[in-house]
Design brief:
With 314 residues, this protein is of the alpha+beta class. The chain has two domains: 200 residues, Cyclophilin (Beta Barrel), CATH 2.40.100.10; 53 residues, no CATH class. 36% of the residues lie in helices and 16% in strands. The strands form two sheets. It has an eight-stranded antiparallel sheet. Strand 3 and strand 4 form a beta hairpin. Helix 5 crosses helix 8. The radius of gyration is 21 Å and the shape is globular.
């Protein structure tokens, strides 16, 4: 619940071989330039975009889902414009995620609070939680919190890549509870005359700073909230979600609240290194982690051969 309380308070918000290396860099630059020119056409049904996210810790390659069309097209548009080049991964939390895409992060002075800016537009949510969910490596759109963004619109450029953690089936059963909604309904419950003593108890626990006891108290009244307000607070999980969350891990509590529009296919060790970097009070890494993102159009068969990703059959 301590992590829950933190998330509720700070939503994913806009809150050595010198000669050969030089030759390799020249070749890579030429290849990337050709790839960028290749982006001026639309992939055929047998092709797909392959994105490359380059960082000081190495590269991550990924794909963007065709079904989340607006997010995919917007991301590729920004890549073509070199929008992301030089921007920072400005919010990195171990066992949670790494976030970037704030245009003001490029060249930002140390200690500057980042994460509140984008390109000036938003994208409608494209939720498909049963098919595309917050497994480790998921590429997702950041957004403002529900109070100012009830439609859960995505920020135009900020995104995050999930690291998360591995859950046991028992933990997964607990975490599938929609804590955002439960917390909101619990607060409403406290306004009812019949629960005045409950409000007093909560205040006492808050004064003690006993987050574990607060969690138990809120969970104790979960069924009461469901009956009082006529809602179901458990998010359904598919067998695939259960399998992924209990093996590679992720952040299941975000499913259905943020748009998942892609995934990385390799570079998971890069993701882990970035997420583990020490940060300040706002989880900005103490050492800047800039990114560069490129894209190219490749046959899906080649992407499958290189990374083992199996495209869904139509």
């Amino acid at each position: 619940m301590q992590k829950w309380l933190a998330i509720l308070g700070a939503t994913l918000l806009i809150a050595c071989r010198e000669s050969s290396q030089g030759q390799s860099q020249t070749t890579t630059t030429s290849t990337q330039e050709n790839a960028q020119e290749n982006l001026n056409r639309t992939p055929t049904p047998e092709e797909d975009f392959l994105i490359t996210i380059s960082t000081p810790f190495g590269q991550m390659h990924g794909i963007l889902y065709e079904e989340t069309k607006q997010h995919r097209e917007n991301f590729i548009k920004l890549v073509k414009e070199k929008y992301y080049d030089g921007l920072l991964f400005h919010r990195c939390i171990k066992d949670f995620m790494i976030q970037g895409g704030d245009p003001t992060s490029k060249g930002a002075a140390p200690g500057v609070i980042l994460g509140n800016h984008g390109p000036g537009y938003y994208l409608p949510a494209e939720f498909m939680p049963e098919k595309y969910f917050h497994e480790k490596g998921a590429i997702c759109a950041a957004r403002k919190g529900d109070q100012v963004n009830p439609q859960k619109q995505s920020d135009g450029s900020q995104f995050y890549i999930v690291q998360g953690k591995v859950y046991s089936e028992e933990e997964l059963r607990r975490v599938r509870t929609d804590f955002y909604k439960l917390y909101e309904l619990f607060q409403k419950l406290l306004t009812k005359p019949a629960y005045i003593s409950l409000a007093t108890e909560l205040t006492r626990l808050q004064q003690r700073g006993d987050n574990a006891a607060i969690e138990q108290l809120i969970l104790k009244y979960k069924e009461t909230c469901e009956k009082e307000f006529g809602v179901e607070l458990d998010k359904p999980l598919t067998q695939e979600q259960i399998q992924k969350y209990t093996t590679i891990g992720g952040t299941p509590f975000l499913d259905g609240d943020y748009t998942v529009f892609g995934k990385i296919l390799d570079g998971f060790e890069v993701l882990d290194k970035i997420a583990s970097q020490p940060g300040d009070t706002y989880n900005r890494p103490l050492t800047d982690i800039p990114m560069k993102i490129t894209a190219e159009i490749l046959p899906k068969a080649e992407i499958t051969k290189r990374f083992g990703y199996q495209y869904p059959k139509n």
